[in-house]
Amino acid sequence: MKCQLCSKPATVHFTKIVNKQKTEVHLCQGCAEKQHFLTPGEMSLSAVLQSLIGQHVGGQAEELSRLTCPTCGIKYMEFRAEGRLGCPADYAVFKTGLEPILERVHRATRHVGKIPRRSRAPARDEADLLALRQKLRRAIECEEFEEAARLRDLIRHEEASDESG
């Protein structure tokens, strides 16, 4: 997309909605600064993250500033400055500071991911098969042989469909 004023590549995009009327402005960095849409350096990732983090953990900032991850050694203030975590353990260590941010940004605090429609989820299939095998074992122990036979056939069917798919 090109700048609406000078035809350079647009890097600043504003969308304004007033009384259900949507107005979009696409400008290059230089034209955005000339038009006073932003001050130089205002749109850096670090500045946006600082604003977002400060907004959600204001009262806990002192407590969080003392936290350090025992696994990777990153301090909460380093995360706050850089906007990057050091390792998966940081999610647990900095939980109180991260949850409000994740809730605001992602509308959730737990990642659920996506699975393509055409593919099967091998991990989920394995878990399902394991659960079926446990039910089969319980049915045999309780001498529920009709249920055990049904479960055995279901397991065979699932295993066969996994091999063919």
In summary, what is this structure?
This protein has about 160 residues and is mainly α. Helix content is about 55%, strand content about 10%. A hairpin with a 2-residue loop joins strand 1 and strand 2.
Instruction: List the strand order in the largest sheet.
Output: 1-2
Radius of gyration: 27 Å
Strand content: 5-15%
Number of domains: 3
Quantity of strands, as a count: 2
Mean pLDDT across all amino acids: 78
Name the helicity range: 40-55%
For the biggest sheet, the summary is:
2 strands, antiparallel
Report the order of strands and helices.
Answer: EEHHHHHHHH
Alpha carbon gap, first and last residue: 43 Å
Principal-axes geometry comes out as elongated
Detailed description of the structure:
By secondary structure, this protein is mainly α. It has 3 domains: 43 residues, no CATH class; 62 residues, no CATH class; 43 residues. The chain contains 8 helices and 2 strands. It has a two-stranded antiparallel sheet. Helix 7 packs antiparallel against helix 8. It is elongated. The mean pLDDT is 78.
Main features:
mainly alpha; 165 residues; 8 helices; two-stranded antiparallel ribbon
Q: SSE layout and pairings?
A:
Elements: E1 12-18, E2 21-27, H1 29-34, H2 45-57, H3 61-65, H4 76-82, H5 90-93, H6 95-106, H7 122-141, H8 145-164
Antiparallel strand pairs: 1-2
Helix pairs in contact: 2-6, 7-8
